[in-house]
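Researcher: Here's a chain I'd like modeled. Treat it as a single chain, no partners, no ligands.
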Amino acid sequence: MNLLDTAIRVLEEGPICDHCLGRQFAKLSTGLTNKERGSALKTVLAMLGYQKFKEGDPSLLQKLASCSQQARTILNAKGTDEKCWLCNDLFKSLDVWVQRALKLLKKYQYDTFLVGTKVSGLLAENEEILWATSNIIHAEPLKSELNREIGKLIQEETGKEVNFERPDIIVLLDLAEGKVELQVSSVFIYGRYKKLIRGIPQTRWPCPLCQGDGCERCNYTGKLYPTSVEELMKDPVIERSGGTDVVFHGAGREDIDALMLGTGRPFVLEVKEPLHRHFDLIDLEKEINRLAKSKVEVRELRFVEKDMVEEVKIADADKVYRLRLIFKDTISEEKLKASLDKLCTNIKQRTPLRVAHRRADKVRTRTVHSAELIDMDVKGATIHVRCESGLYVKELISGDEGRTKPNLSELLGTEVQVRELDVIGVKHARRKKKN
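Model: Modeled as a single isolated chain. Structure tokens:
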């Protein structure tokens, strides 16, 4: 079946607009709109019909009359005002959809956008029936043309660019409901933080008794701890971005009773549904540090792409800890140094008892790269430990009832406790992909 025969089959189904006719042959040419394709096909068929009419065969011209203005003119007939049966004259109301979208878009700061369409069941069914009955193999879907045409109109009105990979905003047309919705992409901010006091968790910690609802135990705050590293950053970010929420993604986490020092721990803040995508991060950094009042300090803030979240979370990051140790029995400096040397190996560590309620019970292998004595007195010792990410360093010292091997308590032959623990270094490096 040639192109004109297929076009006639399409026209036999009922009145059809130029957009919908041309769309059935969208993959056969470039440089034309579907409307131009449809109009050209109707013109050619009307001319062919008129030729046959002059030869005494009016059937083709009459067949075209209900859907071709050119054919109606040739027949000197008034024609009909029937709607396109395929799209229900949707392309006559493009500007209505554009204005609905612009009304929502005007309150957002954005550079790129993309249009998406949720087609109603009836329109989708009409299209599928046509493809099946007319053997259509070169068409593009209705929603593809709508996305493109409305996208061009929005681009003309706003000067913003269409982005197919990572748009700042997706304009979603719901044809069944007759409404437009926006899907606003998050903004991502990378940085490093120091935690300068003990007793603050990294993220909000809901009260385990009421699960965040508020009860007498948590003084009806819903939280086990008054604040967190995350919460100390959240309000200034919301204020500047106009976002609805902020999600904290950290490169690991330190214990609540540990300090986070050195160059700080890498993190990414994900700002949900921001009204503003561009704001002064130097000013934001200063405001967070001012409001945190020496509890937390942030640095190196910069805008990043979404990929950085995964990179931060899965990155290989060696940690350097400073530990203040207390010994149950008197220990010589020589024995301590020798035991620390023996710790520099692969450590077999079963999930610690203190976190077994929230982590899978399994044995993990982590490496201690170095363990160095810094100072020692009659009350205990201070050591530095550099190890692979994921090692529970407190259990490296205590042994956790034999769940971590080797451990310092076992090597020294006496109980050793961690009195203070500080993270003094996090070396953030991208994890190598496995072949």
